[in-house]
Every structure is written in structure tokens, then in C-alpha cells.
Amino acid sequence: MSKKNWPLWEVFIRSKNGLSHKHVGSLHAADDEMAVENARDVYCRRSEGVSIWVVKSTEIYASDPGKSEELFETAKNKIYRHPTFYDIPKEIGHM
Amino acid sequence: MNLEQLEKEFQARIDADEKIEAKDWMPDAYRKTLIRQISQHAHSEIVGMLPEGNWITRAPSLRSKVILLAKVQDEAGHGLYLYSAAETLGIDREQLLHDLHIGKAKYSSIFNYPTLSWADMGAVGWLVDGAAIANQVMLCRTSYGPYARAMVKICKEESFHQRQGYEIMMHMANGTEAQKRMAQDSLNRWWWPSLMMFGPPDKESTNSEQSIKWKIKRQTNDELRQEFVDHTMPQVKYLGLQVPDKDLKWNEEKKGYDFGTPDWEEFYNVIKGNGPCNKQRLDARIKADKEGEWVREASMAHYEKKQLKKKVA
């Protein structure tokens, strides 16, 4: 095995203008330019994108699934943040 | 939380049809099974490029050549989606390739058969990709998120593969007498290995039961094989060709075909490394890896040099 392997990059693709970039997978490349070129070949062979973002996988800091509860639980109690919490009379129509 | 509780919760998530994601807790055996299965699948895509690559320079027209090139390039892409799905489980690419090269990791044994005529480009696309699709459609609903997502993308692309293969078969089967003979000969050689692609019969399949419990697999080998035969037979009839199985006949009661038993001895023998092309396939992979090494090293050196310049500037 060679000593210095190409790092792993995460690939994000904007499928068309007006939509946000979406994670599609990852790939190996020596540098950012090669990562974009490889992403074109690996993830955009059928006009899947108009823009590509790549970021080194090691540069992504992710939340811990084991701590999901404390991170996301509080939002669950705040049901008054949703429009359906409020009763609006039918006569008023759409609001 | 102790291990038993964690495992219980994990199974409850699976039973509730939740997807498991890369950083979630999972039993070691689940992780190992996935690494084995996904990498085997990735290797199959990459090794699968070889029998078809064999015909690129001899494609009978420019049209068929660009199509075959696109298909083989797709297989490379599929291999890469799968390797990256496997890597989310904490194993690196180098290790996966190393395991392939030393013969520790397997790939689909069908690619150890040779492609002898242009009709084989038809039969491979139609039958081999067709059998792969049956398996992969099921895997779009597999419990591991990154694997399922890779499969969705692959399935969208595979449909082109099968159609282009069937188109070749149609041309050959409706062509000259010699072309018809080639088409029939090709079907004769690829039919049984295609049925073997679904793996050993359920009663002998060691990995099946646990994989179904974990919803890695959603259908058994025998169920998928039956589905494939039922689905493919109308296509065989349309071509006016015969499958090499005298036991194959419609069973009105089960609304499906009865068919013969593949030669499982041959199947195990090919897996063990004694198929017609095992050595050739593995040698080709090892050669490609070795000959590409200087490119990988040079591009890293180039990158490091660029970084250094940036620092100085």
C-alpha cells in the first residue's frame, strides 16, 4: 500500500439554479480541482448538475447521533411555533 | 447502556423501518456484514468492466461503440458510489482494494466467464445486468442509508444497460442465420451463470437469515431468482430463442415458471478461483493498480508543492 493516499472529499451538487446544493456521495482526489473534475465524471454523467461543491471529509464536523435527544428534543415541545397550533375561524378563509 | 440494550434498540429501529446512518450505533456484525457485502458489490462493478471492455475496440459500429463505452464508464461510476458507501463504515479504500487483490474479498463470479462474441455484449447487458437489477431494486430499500442511496442512483442508470443489451439481442436474433446462432449460443452460455448470480439456494445460504432480520436484504435468493425467471421468459420468447433448461415450464398454479437447478458445484468451483477467467480478471486489476501508483503519488506531490507555494506567497 502506498504511504500517501488521496484524501476523501464529500461532493455536493446543485441540480439546477434555484435549488440548493445537495450531498450526493464522496470520492478520492489529490486536490480540490481534481475533486471537482472527478465529481463531474462520477456524479454528473447525465446532466445531474450545474454546480459542484467539494469539501474534504475531515473538514466536516458533525453532530453526535448519540446526543440527538438533547440537541433536538427542545424543539419538539414548542408546538406553538407551528401554524396548526392556532385555531382560526373558517369564515376568515385562508390565512 | 449495555450491549444487549443497544442491540435491542437497534433491532427496534430496524423493525420500525428506520434507516441506519453512518455515525449511528450499530452491532459489529452488522457493520462487518455491510462492509463485506458493499465491497463485494463494488468489486463486482469494477471487475465487471473487464469482460465488456474486451469488446470496445471491436464494436461493430460507432453507435454501438459509444454506447458500450458509456456503459463501461457507468460501471466504474457504480463501483465508486459503492466504495464510498463502504467507506462510511470506517474502512478505507486502500484496504478494500488490498483485500480484493489478495483474493480475500470476492466479486460476482459471473465475471469469471469469458465474452466470446459480440452477442455476449447483448446477453451480458440483458441477463447479467437484468439479474443485478432484480437484486439492486431490492437493495434500494436496504436498512443502511448510504448503501440504499447509492443503489437508487445505480438502479436509475442500470435500466439503460439492460435495454441496450436487449437491443443487441434483438438485432442478432432477427439477423442472419449466423447471427441467430451467435445469439442462441450466447444465451446458452449466460443463462445458468445469470441464475447463479442470486447466490446459493435459501436452504444453503449462510448469510441470508440474519441479513433479512437486519433488513439488509429484503428478499431471499430463491425469491429473487424466481422473480427474474418469470420476468425474463417473455423477453426470451420475443427473441424466438430457447433457454438451455428442459425442465423449464409454466406452472399455472403458482403463476410462475418451474425451472431446473443450476450446477451449484460449478458455482462453488468458480468462487474458489477455478472459473475460466478468475486469474485473468484479478491480474488485470492488480496491474491497473500498480501501473496507476506513480500517477497517484505524482498528483499528491503536485498538491503538496502547490500548498508550499501558497505558504511562501
Summarize model confidence as the mean pLDDT of chain B.
96
Output the number of helix runs of chain B.
13
* Assembly context of the chains: heterodimer
Assign the CATH class of the domain at 8-62 in chain A.
Alpha Beta
Question: What report would you give on this structure?
Answer:
- The complex is a heterodimer of chains A (95) and B (313).
- Chain A is an alpha+beta fold.
- Chain A has a domain at 8-62: Ubiquitin-like (UB roll), CATH 3.10.20.
- Chain A has 2 helices and 3 strands, in the order ββαβα.
- The longest helix of chain A is centred in the middle third of the chain and has 12 residues, at 32-43.
- The radius of gyration of chain A is 21 Å and the shape is elongated.
- The N and C termini of chain A lie far apart (64 Å).
- The mean pLDDT of chain A is 92.
- Chain B starts with a helix and ends with a helix.
- Chain B contains 13 helices and 2 strands; from the N terminus they run ααααααααααββααα.
- Chain B is 68% helix and 2% strand.
- Chain B has helices at 3-15, 28-47, 49-53, 62-87, 93-101, 119-139, 145-173, 177-196, 208-213, 221-239, 264-274, 278-291, 293-312; strands at 249-251, 256-258.
- In chain B, α6 packs parallel to α8 and α6 runs antiparallel to α10 (221-239).
- A two-stranded antiparallel sheet of chain B has the order 1-2.
- The radius of gyration of chain B is 21 Å and the shape is globular.
- In chain B, a hairpin with a 4-residue loop joins β1 (249-251) and β2.
- By secondary structure, chain B is mainly alpha-helical.
- The chains are: A alpha+beta (95), B mainly alpha (313).
- The A-B interface holds A 1-2, 4-6, 8, 24-28, 30-31, 34, 41-43, 45-46, 62, 64-66 and B 21, 23-25, 70, 73-74, 77, 80-81, 84-85, 87-88, 92-94, 98, 146, 149-150, 153, 157, 293, 296-297, 299-300, 302-303, 306.
